[in-house]
Predict the structure.
Amino acid sequence: MNNSKVVSSIKEAIQLAGLKDGMTISFHHHLRNGDYVLNMVMDAVADLGIKDLNVNASSVFDTHEPLIGHIKNHVVTGLEADYIGGVVGRAISHGVLDKPVTFRSHGGRPSDIEQGRSPIDVAFVAAPTSDTMGNCSGKYGKSACGSLGYAFADAMYAKKVIVITDNLVPYPLADFSISEIYVDYVVQVESIGNPAGIVSGTTKITRDPVGLVMAQYAAKVIEHSGLLKDGMSFQTGAGGASLAAAKYLKDIMLEKGIKGSYGLGGITSYMVDMLNAGCFEALLDVQCFDLGAVESIRTNPRHREVTASHYASPSVRSSAVDSLDVVILGATQIDTDFNVNVHTDSNGYIMGGSGGHSDTAAGAKMAMIIAPLTRARLSIVVDRVLTVSTPGSTIDVLVTQRGIAVNPRQQELKERLQKAGLPIVEIQDLKRIAEELTGTPKPIHLGDKVVANVLYRDGSLLDTIKSVD
Amino acid sequence: MEIKKAAVAGTMESSDVYVEIKPASDIAVQIESVVAQQFGEEIERVVRQVLEENGVKGAHVSLNDKGAVECVIRARVETAIRRGEGERDQ
């Protein structure tokens, strides 16, 4: 019996895995903008002369810019992701790829993989620590990223699994996340990522006074929503205003002695602070946003790693979003029907994606959008979003610095917030107030080519994204 | 009002505009804007209007606009004009 799966190089692992033209390979994004693995693998694949690959990456960041070259050389002819940053997104919007990109949500992706709708031939797992048989973890090593939540479906369902690590340890790594039973090959490299890039620049509380006003409103909306009671569960994004809202919420919870049940999602140090202060019983963590979160998931048993399926899949028996009370989310645009765009910017360029946006909005009892009324002379509120990322039927509240709009289907919530003295306005009024300041924008011109299809979490087509000329 | 020397006003921050003005015999306006599609023509109209209101007959003006609203554009252009007429040091 061979007691090691370690092979000498990424190229050797790719050849042993039998990767051929036309196959699908997959990546996960826990190393975020510090990730080296996707680029290393794509360079190796290109060197081996393999072409026509479909790349399924849970997210694509700006550091993955070399992917554009691999697309131009037809090494990559298909791309599927839950999020694509502005650099690669711009190239996609200009039509660099013949075939439309498939966008999914963080829950829809593992759901489709597990249901066999999105098969993977070879999965690459970026592992901050692995033993010689592929038991691996994100909690340890110089490139520690904490949770490996998004990588589980890939590891469990891909035909072949290659673990790439920069911290190879003797068998067995007792505190593993992904088990050796799924892993075919292990490759040791000098470095899988830049630790500085793992920590996003957005994971700091805003000091912008507009952001702080929005955050205070958001916390007050939660306070008066009827949901702020013992057992409340909560998720917030890593944007500056969202984090500030979490801080204000923490103050309210401590003052009132309220003990929540769990904090969910991508986890920041601010959520860890709430756990340690007694605001939650547990954190369920699909991805760590900063080193404080990494340290916590390593040392605190109440801070649990969850798989992407457990986090948000619509096709499992239950996922954590199903029990969620409150989620705070961002938006690049929201329309008067409360549909939200997080995929494209105001000129139509791809610069984001659902992530868990539509999953948490569907699951949470109250889904709140927090956004400044205008950004760079454009109203956040529009008649019709350029891209529907999350259906308005799942969004409950929009918080801006100039007022709070409640979805008309939430009449009771609206009355509660009015009684609490919060500045409740109609969403149409917010658009009017914004355009009094900015002027009325001319409609933008988009191309005819469909460059991306946005799939809802159940696999249905939610919207298409057009090219930008 | 005569533009006697090159001058600038504003910043490259989001929602601001960076204005450069230079002496010239005619009027030329060059605009780069993150909201060119939505407000490009409107921005040019405002810049020309501010030049006219200040009696500027000759100047080359270029804007790098990061989404400034109209009152900000007016203020930045006017400041650039005043700095360019040489009444005080920049």
Observations:
- Chain A has two domains: 6-58+106-198, 209-443.
- The domain at 6-58+106-198 of chain A is CATH 3.40.1080.10 (Glutaconate Coenzyme A-transferase).
- The two ends of chain A are 58 Å apart (CA to CA).
- The first strand of chain A starts at residue 6 and ends at 7.
